[in-house]
Amino acid sequence: MIEVKTSKLSNGDLNRGVFATRDIAKGDLIHEAPVLPYPNEEHDHIEKTMLADYAFEYGANHTAFLLGYGMLFNHSYTPNATYDINFDNHTFDFYAYTDIAAGEEILINYNGDVDCDDPLWFYEEENKRASK
To answer: Where is each SET domain found (predicted)?
Structure first.
C-alpha cells in the first residue's frame, strides 16, 4: 500500500517521503508504526542530534521514535493523512484523512492536529538562524 521514495517536499538530507502504491480511501488504515519510547528527561541528549527532528510526543511523560515508515511521513498544513496514538498497542496508527491516489505522497501535519497551522519548531529555528 505504501513505499518510500524521493520526495520534493523533504528539506532533510535524505529527501525521503512515503507514497501510496495504490488508491487509498478516506479513513483507511495506512500504517501502524511501532513506538520506541523514552522518558522526556532523556530528550536533552536527543536534542544534540539530528534525531530530535524525528521525535514525537508520546503522552505526558515520554517522547518516542516511530519505527517502520512512521518517521518518514513529510509535513503539510493541508495533510491527506492523520495519526492516532494507540497506547494499548504501542503504535502510531496512520489513517487517510482524504482519498489518496496511487503515486501521491502521504502527508501529515506535524502539529498533530490536521487543522493546526502553528509554526513548526524547525521553521522557527530556521528563522532564528536566518536573522543572525
So the answer is: 1-111
